[in-house]
Amino acid sequence: MTLRLFDDAPDRFEAQAHVLSCTPREGHFAVVLDQTIFFPRGGGQPCDNGTIAGTAVLDVFEENGVILHILPSPAEGEVSLRLDGERRLEMMRHHLGQHILSAVIDHTFGVPTVIARIEDAGPHIELASPLSEQQLVQAQQAAREIIGKALAVHCAYYTPEQAKGMTVRGKITPHERIRLVEIEGFDLNACGGTHCSDTSGVLELVITGTKMVRGAFRVYYLAGHAAQKARPEREGQLLQAQHALGCESASGLLQAQQELLERQSALEAQCQALQKALLEADTALWAARCRPLAQGRMACAILDEGDVKHLRAVAEALCQQAPTALLLAVRQQDKLSLLFMRSKGPKEPNLGAMVKDLCARFDGRGGGSPISAQGVICGGADGENALQQVFRAAEQAWEQPKAQ
Ligand SMILES: [Zn+2]
Q1: Distance 168 CA to ligand 1 centre (A)
Q2: Residue 191 Cα, ligand 1 centroid: separation in angstroms?
Q3: The domain spanning residue 215 has which CATH number?
Q4: pLDDT tens-digit series, residues 368-396
Q5: Ion ligand 1 neighbours, Cβ < 5 Å
Q6: pLDDT, average across residues 321-345
Q7: Last residue of a domain, one of 245, 273, 303
Q8: What total number of domains does the chain contain?
Q9: CA–CA distance, 374 with 113 (Å, rounded to integer)
Q10: Which of 18, 48, 210, 378 is least enclosed, having the fewest CB within 10 Å?
Q11: What is the structure's pLDDT at 120?
C-alpha cells in the first residue's frame, strides 16, 4: 500500500520514495512506490505532472487500490519525486473553488451539484436544475466572500457510522474509511482530493459561462491565477461588446441585442418577400423566352451570370405551369454550371444522359434523371459548342409531335 503523502501535505512538491515494483505496461513502465506525492487522476481531476528520478511522469492513476506511476523507462531503488508545483496549486485552487461554489449554490438555492470536473472542457460543475444569471452572480459573489474570509480547511477520516450522524453535503461513496473535508463553519463534504489550507488559497473565482448538457445545467468557472487573469479579460470583452453594439453602458446591451434580433427577423421576412417576387418575375421572363414546339415550350441558353439555385426554382415553376423544357448553363470562371429540367410526359430528351455525356467529354461531374439533371463541366469554346449541339438535339426531339 502506497502512503498518500498528498492527503496530509498537499503543498509538498518534493519527496524521496522507494520503488516497490516496476512492470512493463503498453510500451511503458508502471511503477509502484512506498509513498507518493503524485495525485492520481480520477473523479474529473487530472493527475499531477512532474518527474520521478528525473524522468517525466506520463500518467498516474489508481487501479484496484494501487497507485500506478507510468514512466517511459524503468525505475528501481530510491528515487526522488518532484511535482510541477504551480500546476498542483492551480488544481487545488480550482478544486477548493469548486467545493465553495457547489456549497453556496446548494445552501442558497437548494440546487445540488451532480458532476464536478477540472479536465476536459475546462473546469465546470453540472447542476440538477438551471440557475438564472442573477442567481449565478449572487453565487459568485457569495463564493468570493467565503474566499475572502480565509476559513480553515480540515481533512479527517471517519467510519461510515460516524459519518452517518454528520450533516454532509452530497453523496458519500461507501468506504471503510470516509475522508471528510470541512470548510470551517461553512461546509462538510466527502472528498479524496487535494485542498488549500484555507479558503483564501483559492485567490479568486469567476463564473465564465453556462450550457445545457444532457439535461444538466453546466456552469463553467475559473479559480486561482486563471481567474485573476480572466477577470480583466472579461471586462475588456464587455467593453468590446458595448462598442460593437454602440452601447454607452453595459445595461443597454440586452436592449441593443433585442433590437438587433427584431431587425434581423424583419429583414428575413423582407428578403423572403423579395425572393418570392423575383421568382414570379423571372418565371414570367423565362416563359416569354421559351419557344413553342410541338411537345411544349423550350428555352436553351448559356448565361454570363445567374444563381443556379434560383434558376432551378424558376425551372420548377415553369415545368409545373405547362409542358416546358429549360436547358441552361451559367458561365462561372472557366467552368459551366448546367441546369437541365423538363416536364414529365415525353420520353425524350433524356437530360440525365445528356449531362452525363457532357461530363464524360469535358472533365466534369454531374448527372440526374431523364427530366432533371445538374452538373459542372470545363468550359471553353469546345465545351460551349458541344452544349449548343445538345440544345439543338433537345429542340429537334420536341419539334416532332409526341410519339403515340
Ligand atoms: Zn475536495
Answers
A1: 13
A2: 5
A3: 3.30.980.10
A4: 999 999 999 997 899 999 999 999 999 99
A5: 191, 193
A6: 95
A7: 245
A8: 4
A9: 55
A10: 18
A11: 66
